[in-house]
Amino acid sequence: MKWGSRLPIMxxxxxxxxxxxxxxxxxxxxxxxxxxxxxxxxxxxxxxxxTGYRDIDTDVLSIDxxxxxxxxxxxxxxxxxxxxxxxxxxxxxxxxxxxxxxFVLSGSFGSVASYAYxxxxxxxxxxxxYRRSVSDKEILGEFYVYDMISQVDYDRNSLNSLVKYxxxxxxFNSISFRCVFQFDFPIGYSIPSLGTLSFTLRIEQ
Length: 205
Known about the structure:
disordered N terminus
């Protein structure tokens, strides 16, 4: 698959409900046959509007790589992680796009989904979504884009709280973080094939 092609991203966006005037999608796909999983990346972001689709510059946010640690039998840590970067002044642009950010991993999970949860991570610090949901086809973590209560974010459940925690001046500097889909299997659990995995970031009203 050529990551420069917009067709997979457009197809995935068309499968999603049109629940708001604008929604931003970024997607990354991984198949079992791909030889270099950790090196795979995508940086195309598509904005859906009432009149069609348009590209959003990659100087807002990039999806850099996809990491997996899912052995055939459960070990101490089983996870899928997506490495992303908010570019300088990108947070302002993201806030203009919407107030909710949904991080979604899709695949053929079946009963595996019951062992999974999602969080964002910045240099080892975990940020939990305000809403999680799992099904046999997707694992989702939903975050606020910015803090819902001014200057207060006890739960660290927004992108803005991650940016503030980093201490980085996001107007002039990039901020790299991970979206982690963690699987807490019992030791020795036989992990079935999850099929082709796809990651989607949706930013919407």
